[in-house]
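Customer ticket, subject: "Can you confirm the structure for Smoothelin-like protein 2?"

Message body: Hello, I'm evaluating your service for our small team and ran a test protein. I'd like someone to confirm that this is what the system normally returns, since I don't have a reference to compare against.
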Amino acid sequence: MAFCALVHSFFPTEFDYNVLSPTERKDNFELAFSTAEKKAGCDRLIEVEDMMVMGRKPDPMCVFTYVQSLYNHLRKFE
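Agent reply: Thanks for trying us out. I re-ran your input and got the following:
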């Protein structure tokens, strides 16, 4: 849900964060990644399937790299 929270903070009208469920991990990743791609031109450095394969403990460096890239794109929309 962290990716959704980050994207939602820049594009709050794109989806209703309050209705998201933490148990719907795949849908949440897809929502966050596709919204960032569509609204801010953020390339997907991690695919949804990669996140799902990594399970509950994704590679911290992969996540950090993607979060950093997302933030660098998204902050242009502040």
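A couple of notes from the result: The chain has a mean pLDDT of 93. Residues 2-77 form a domain with the Actin-binding Protein, T-fimbrin; domain 1 fold (CATH 1.10.418.10). Feel free to reply with more questions.
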